[in-house]
Specification:
The protein has helices at residues 23-28, 54-57, 66-78, 90-102, 116-133, 154-159, 163-167, 203-212, 238-249, 270-273, 301-310, 330-345, 348-364, 394-406, 427-446; strands at residues 33-37, 40-43, 48-51, 107-113, 141-145, 177-180, 217-222, 252-256, 280-283, 295-300, 372-378, 381-386, 408-409, 411-413, 416-419. It has 447 residues and is of the alpha/beta class. The chain binds pyridoxal-5'-phosphate.
Amino acid sequence: MSSSNRTNIPNSLNEHWMPFTDNKNFKKNPRLITDAKGVYLTNHQGKKMIDASSGLFCNPLGHGRKEITEAVSKQLDKLDYCQPFNQGYGGSFELATRISKKTPEGINRIFYTICGSTAVETAIKIAIAYHRAKGDSKRFRFVGRERGYHGMNIGATTVGGMINNVKTFASVLMPGVQHMRHTHLPEHKFVKGQPDTGVEMAEDLERIAMNFGGENIAACIVEPIAGSTGTLVPPKGYLKRIREICDKHGILLIFDEVITGWGRTGSAFASQEFDVTPDMITMAKATTNGVIPMGVVAVKEEMYDAVLDSSKNPEGTPELFHGYTYSGIPAAVAAGLAVQDIFDKEDIFNRAKEMSPYFQDGLHSLKDLKEVVSIRGYGMMGGIEMKMKDKPGKSGFQTFKHCYDAGVNFKNTGDTLIIAPQFICEKKHIDEIIEKLRTGISNYSKS
Ligand SMILES: Cc1ncc(COP(=O)(O)O)c(C=O)c1O
């Protein structure tokens, strides 16, 4: 079928092997989205739903932003592609400057990737390259955390801590990776914001450093708030303690801010929100409001200098043998620049910060619902955990389907419903999300 007469419903669902999907189930009962505008989505049955997870945390500025689509379209007309190796175009430099103005001071060298996974992979490689540049080649170990999610290439899968993502691929994962325990303690079940207890979980890093030699560890990577496993908010003082232990052993600290970055916590980055500065920050998703894939690693200037200064390569040879065909391509950069304009014009991070208490109150008002066993959240992100049925994931998915029918769309991971509204939401939209969640969850309980 030509693209001009393509309909909303394809003739066949067989050929597309869908990612992270129960393909058999989906193809029997498809959920196709046909239109998106503002905070609403429409499905192939013409049903309108409110988007309660900003897509996959991608579109905090709302769907169908004209400023972004027009910027991309203009860019494609002028320069659709230029190779990013030993060549460039002005926009990618301009965007790097804009991004570096919002990252914490000193983290101002910007490497473009294609997505969150490739940002994490890049950060892993930069950590190794930096230590080598400093004459410290023995650091090869990495530390991640249980219930962390960092993406799906081999490096990101290894440092992540979600067992189902690892099981099938255990034989090909990176060597030398250890995991700290996650920070979600039983007493955190209905805590709003940062829990008071659990700072001692950071000592896991010290134990790993003791067991494997801190001098052998290249970097520790954490999401400041674990997003994909359902908004696990760090205990007070936890991230600061992780920073101290990294400093003590010369371990680099990577904050994976693919979800928490660009305002989700109410500050530009969680690093600023929690006042802890890592050595690298990975980001993706909201960088382009989700419309064109783009990942970014923001790197400490001193690390960039060390890698460049140590290079003895002849002229024209890269200092870092790493990059992607789509690193900072013009269309993605145009979207990124338009997004930066909207961030500034609409004071979007403050808008998220101001709406956060209202959203968090709404979320926690669902505490009385039968089958809800935990609610946690911070800023404009939250997790509602459903009581497990006979198998993990079953109640989460069934609740998701009841909520979808009730007119609210989001992502579930296992038995947790992940709620992350768009920052353009007004109070009435938050009310609508909470009301429809109440209906969907109640209908699931009755089913
Ligand atoms: C914290 C974090 N890091 C990395 C990724 C991977 O991003 P991508 O799917 O764009 O590769 C995700 C995706 O959800 C994420 O949440």
